[in-house]
Amino acid sequence: MDYGPAPESQKEAQAWLDGHQRKFGLFIDNAWSEPAELFASTNPADGAQLAELTQATDADVERAVEAARRALPVWQGMGGHGRAKVMYALARLLQKHARLFAVLETLDNGKTIRETRDIDLPLAARHFYHHAGWAQLQSEEFADYRAVGVVGQIVPWNFPLLMLSWKIAPALAAGNTVVFKPAEFTSLTAMLFAELCVQAGVPAGVVNIVTGDGRVGSAIVNHPGVDKIAFTGSTEVGRLIREATAGSGKKLSLELGGKSPFIVFEDADLDGAVEGLVDSIWFNQGQVCCAGSRLLVQESIQERFLNKVRARMENLRLGSPLDKSMDVGALVDPVQRQRIAALVDSARAEGCDVWQPACELPADGSWFPPTLITGASTSAAVAQAEIFGPVLVAMSFRTPPEAVQLANNTVYGLAASVWTESISLALDIAPAIKAGVVWINSANQFDAACGFGGYRESGFGREGGREGMLEYMTALAEDARPALPVVEAKAKAAAKPAAADPFAIDRTAKMYIGGKQARPDSAYSAPVFGANGALLAEVGVGSRKDIRNAVEAAHKASGWTGATAHNRAQVLYYIAENLAARADEFAARIAAMTGNKNPEKEVQASIERLFYYAAWADKYDGLAHQPPTKGITVALNEAVGVIGIVCPNEAPLLGFISLVAPAIALGNRVVVVPSEAHPLSALDLYQVFDTSDLPGGVVNIISGNADELARTLATHADIDAVWRHDGSAEGCAEVERLSAGTLKRTWVGGAKGRDWYSAAQSGGRAVLAHASQVKNVWIPYGV
Ligand code: NAD
Fold it and tell me: Which tens digits make up the pLDDT trace of 379-388?
């Protein structure tokens, strides 16, 4: 028995295209521009041209940004309820026109109608419903925040409408206005969405849609009138955007590529896992950022499981995406097909086994058969590169630790899928995997209430959930920051060899690495002068080698991340207690360094801040979401890892404590550059740390030239985030630019100052959010 054809009608979608003479201008200020400088959008399933779209110019982007700026007060003036009503109307309209959208998306993208109809459209509508709710609750739930302003949003072609809703819904809910750019291959559903905006009563200028290729994206990114960039796409372009926005003050979120592991343990429900795998790597032809493209299967069941996978692959139906019984549709464009084919050829050339089911590919259009690759080494291109196609690379492991090690053997960290019937094993593995989303006994689950986003080179920022809303808001406390820091004169004297006179008493304050005092590798030191101009001491001039040693020590101290929050809190209290015991000494040091007339106040504020973050350590809990599926999604606030911190010159002790305490409270390990002008009170802290049960390597202190050390921190491959708060605009810009190499998270203060005594500016959840990253673990529950 075979399947008969079950085509979905495309009449309505074709009529809609005809109604527009198959030509589209740009949607700016709720009006359509005349189509100009056209490029074609084709149906990937047969190569036929569907319509032509306009390549926006810089002047068009300018117009769109201006319209968005003008619309800000209008949109915000409508209030949370006003915005919620409009967003609710958008959700309703998406549902009402779901079939038209689904068919149009399938025609434009090549993905099957089953997916557009059953996944993309329901999720897109849900996103608007959910965020209509956030608009309604904003004044209550985010009272300490405001909208960022004009937001530039750029998306790829794999989920055109869904990515649009992931971007536009939270931005609008928070009161921003947007300039949105769809991918050049797939702009049509965005054009249809623009029409819904008018119908739903979105005021002119709130949503502006400009079409075109990367040049348009680049014009948005570089436009000075844009306050935030939200980008989804390749890691390569994400890096360019990080560099381009460095120092601009633009807020940035990046959702980038992935190479996600799909881990099957020997006790898993193997048939369930096979179905999960189908949803994971053959969903949307594998053109999914979080596709489970690396199958890691326990050796004891490898053969049995792969036989089941091959049998299932034989049954996958590939063909016309509009046919309701098809599993696999067309690739978005021949360019993608060539890229995938080249990677698969490279696997063949490396001696891997490439298996494909007998499968007839349609003559026209862009197709690639489901493919299974075995025998690849862990360093093979197919094991490391994001293929972004229906290609699964399978490897085996023997033990759970080996599975974790293989899973994390990637520069990416977007998602993972874990299959086992043992709940303890699943919940053991989930936190060990470096990825923003972990699905247990499931795959590719999404919901507006649950944040989605990556670790490492998969980017930073989250979409969905509470954390996703925060990406579109600015804390009011940031606006209250002083325009300039109170920058003290830096020690200008040149570095000189330490203790040149062998008989001189060595007054060089040591650095602190791995729980021990350390001399600088360079053997150079620099003098530190007090407020009265007298020489107070020498400090070591730290170098690249010292940072390397400190990072190594920080990595060895990973036990700190695994320690309980209660234990970490105890250590912070203990540090506070020991600091209090030496309060006079520290006050005297601060007075000598800075001339501060009330140094006791800074010491007391530092003690209080330690108490403050000790208090937070076991209270910055995650959330348990209940998405509309059978399960719970546990949003965990995990440590970022190793954070490099460049401290402010103002309040040299309090500034240091205000940055280090939240980082270590949440389980991070830090490599800290203390105030360049007044480093001594931070360097004195080793005596406090040594008596406070702080494990060696959790806090490492490297004194020296802030610019040079910040550069080393930002380019170091094993540092996960860099914070810089010394008021150096260029230095902060450089940290952002250099961090693009490994896409580190950054938190920089720019040229502005910060009131380190103010709990609002130097404390709170906004700071804790910098010290953590949310991992969403999906757990089937009540199934
Ligand atoms: P891409 O990076 O080439 O393009 C994405 C978008 O960026 C397009 O709209 C493109 O026109 C635009 N663009 C290109 N160059 C630009 C530039 N210099 N400045 C600004 N914008 C520019 O990616 P793609 O090939 O369209 O999409 C596939 C990639 O997207 C994959 O790597 C995939 O993993 C990633 N992706 C990630 C997620 C996620 O949530 N993490 C979701 C979907 C896709």
Answer: 999 999 999 9
